[in-house]
Design a protein that fits this description.
The chain is mainly alpha-helical and about 190 residues long. The chain has one domain. Helix content is about 65%, strand content about 5%. The N and C termini lie close together (about 10 Å).
């Protein structure tokens, strides 16, 4: 068994590599720009939301919280007429990417920590590079990609977007597997 303290460098390196890779994917390659669409009546939708003054949070439309209500003719009509959706509202204000980027990096460190945890408890010191690469890469891929399919199934995320994000996760897993394999204790 390897002590987690021995894995601080692959934890940090993989978090940095994933952060840089995701920045390149989103800001240079811009692979995900086509994942977001503009509403044809954006100004009217924004005005309607502003009028209601909802707090930041997660919303669903039509709002229905139990199956009995969902079976009512009124609710069935709402579902049939549409729109049906899930959306998130953030606090209004100037765009500031700092907190999101900081949160993303922190999340990368947390993922890398759990990759290290699994590897430290399943792989011995001196394990060959390829075996470490496989375990670390697989755990990392599952951590980043695991929520994409449920989001497509339950929340309406387009499958094309879920698959693209899973492809990003595969890339992150390869980078993390490489960092752990390279820096694994001998």
């Amino acid at each position: 068994m390897v002590a987690l303290a021995q894995l601080w460098l692959p934890i940090l390196l993989s978090a940095v590599l994933v952060f840089i890779a995701s920045s390149l994917v989103h800001m240079v390659i811009k692979w995900h720009n086509s994942d977001y669409w503009k509403l044809p009546n954006e100004d009217e939708v924004r005005a309607a939301i502003q009028k209601g003054n909802p707090a930041p949070g997660q919303y669903v439309t039509p709002y229905c919280m139990d199956m009995k209500e969902a079976q009512s003719p009124e609710m069935q009509k709402k579902y049939a007429d549409g729109p049906v959706g899930l959306f998130y509202l953030k606090k209004p204000g100037p765009m500031n990417m700092g907190p999101q980027l900081g949160g993303w990096f922190g999340f990368n460190v947390v993922i890398a920590f759990f990759v290290a945890y699994v590897c430290a408890h399943t792989l011995a010191a001196g394990t060959p590079y390829l075996q470490v690469f496989r375990v670390a890469g697989c755990v990392c891929f599952l951590a980043y990609a695991g929520g994409e399919v449920p989001a497509a199934i339950w929340m309406g995320k387009p499958w094309k977007v879920a698959f693209k994000e899973a492809a990003d996760s595969l890339f992150y897993g390869l980078l993390t597997g490489g960092a752990f394999g390279w820096l694994w204790p001998k």
